[in-house]
Amino acid sequence: MPGNILIVDDEEKLRSLLTRIIKLEGYSVREAADLKSAKKLLDKELFDVILCDVKLPDGNGIDIVQDIKNKYPSTEVILLTAYGNIADGVQAMKNGAFDYITKGDDNEKIIPLLGRAIEKINLKKRVVQLENQFRKNYDFDHILGESNLIHEAVSLARKVAVTDATVLLNGETGTGKEVFAQAIHNGSKRNNKPFVALNCSTLNKELLESELFGHKEGAFTGASKDKKGLIEEAHTGTLFLDEMGEMHIDLQAKLLRVLETREFIKVGDTRSTLVDVRIIVATNKNLLNEVAAGKFREDLFYRLNAFTISLPSLRDRKSDIPILAKHFLNIYSEKTNPQVTAISKDFLDALKKHAWKGNIRELKNIIERSLIVSNGTELTTADLPMEFSMDDPKTTTLSAFDLASVEKLHIQRVLNHTKHNKTETARLLNIGLSTLYRKMEEYNIQ
Q1: Given a cut of 70, is residue 390 above it in pLDDT?
Q2: pLDDT of 210 over the 70 cut
Q3: What residues contact residue 367 under an 8 Å CB cut-off, 6+ apart?
Q4: CATH of domain 315-442
Q5: If you average pLDDT over every residue of the chain, what do you get?
Q6: Full-prediction pTM beyond 0.70?
Q7: Which residues on neighbouring strands pair with residue 76, listed in sequence order?
Q8: Does domain 4-132 correspond to CATH entry 3.40.50.2300?
Q9: What's 312's DSSP letter?
Q10: What is the DSSP string of 359-393?
């Protein structure tokens, strides 16, 4: 897409020639003979690309690049020089210039260069749009629920978000701890900086240490080059550590140092690295019990426990189930089963009776699975997985044959939906792949 171009050059003939050439490509072009005139134009309108001569009557184009990039970070600068040299070219690029070309010799490069500069600008704009959309999707207004428990948790999170305090999120699996962490980050002054998340339960001690703190080349077998850790990647932003209770006690000491001194030592390094990072941790364990069992450092616990937010389980906020269920219906029906537009009262009643050991994550999966098997325009109890029949006292007397028939039918429906993709079917059924194969053999499902 054509952009807005500013040409800054004291040679009027060259300036006019460039203007004609560039306008033929559909760009809008303005001209300035010196830096003073250019600054006046920059104060009035935004330019995508500035073509600027190096030698100007009132200054040097190389020196002015940094000022332009600081004031107008989305604007790209291409420098033009009559006598190019490597030193000036290097300095121009260091200052933030998009490119540095020689007049006359490189005239044919100008139009392709403008095209690439505009592409870069459009890509940056798209990234900003996506980041803004991401932040919007993970702000406090998108945490659904009307119960007092969820309102209290959101209220606390809003208050702590504007500070730099370390936060401990405590709650069962699937209660939305990462959603809260992202909302706290997006509600903070660090919201345009990195948000880096790591699940501490997915890696062993050695891998977690390297992933978190980074390492130096040669620190261990396979460390062929220096590597930044996630703490360093989150510099000026937020680091979210999920399943904190699973972190090895030796690594807890290193994390405590980061919290207290804002510095850490990479694996294999001898010098400290300073870092400015906010840390949010989450756990589904009772850390005080872990301290008593010798599995969690007491000093780290009290450091983390300074500001704790307890996230309620879904069974403690069952009045929110209809709101959440309809939300997930809106998300998944369009791509899974567009004909389903409603949820029956019996379906919602069944949801309210369920134990919800997996909390909101389990509810999301149930709605997705129910949409897959539904043949009507609304979700009914017939669309629920077999385990929901065990929640209803009226159905606990079903024979083994009846239960097996329901399970067989459900597996067959999900297989049909995934076009017999076994891995995807196992994921949707929330069972292991080997379990799926065993049940297919047991029920003679082809």
Answers
A1: no
A2: yes
A3: 325, 328, 329, 332, 379
A4: 1.10.8.60
A5: 87
A6: no
A7: 49
A8: yes
A9: P
A10: HHHHHHHHHHHHHHH--SSEE-GGGS-GGGGGGSG
Give residue limits of the domains in the chain: 4-132, 138-312, 315-442
- Kindly state the tokens that stand for 204: 């062993």
Instruction: For residue 232, give both structure tokens.
Output: 């360093």
Cβ atoms within 10 Å, residue 410: 18
Q: Which two tokens stand for residue 422?
A: 């076994």
**In a 10 Å sphere around its CB, with 0-12 CB exposed, 13-18 middle and 19+ buried, how is residue 107 labelled?**
middle
Distance CA 263, CA 322 (A): 46
Angle made by CA atoms 76, 101, 21, in degrees to the nearest 5: 75
User: 36 is written with which tokens?
Assistant: 């003073």
Q: Say which residues have a Cβ less than 8 Å from residue 163's Cβ, sequence separation at least 6.
A: 188
Indicate the fold that domain 138-312 takes in CATH.
Rossmann fold (3.40.50)
Cβ-contact 267, 216 below 8 angstroms: yes
Q: Where are the alpha helices (DSSP H) in 138-176?
A: 148-161
Distance in angstroms (rounded) separating the CA atoms of residues 243 and 261: 23
Which of 3-17, 47-61, 102-116, 415-429 is predicted with the least confidence, judged by mean pLDDT? 102-116
Fold: same for 4-132 and 315-442: no
Burial of 201 (0-12, 13-18, 19+ CB in 10 A): middle
CB-CB neighbours of 286 under 10 Å: 13
Residues shown for the chain? 446
b/e sequence 379-403, b meaning 16+ C-beta within 10 Å = bbbebbbbebbeeeeeeeeeeeeee
Query: If pLDDT is split at 50, 70 and 90, which confidence band does 1 have?
Result: low
Residues 6+ apart with CB under 8 A from 341: 333, 377, 378
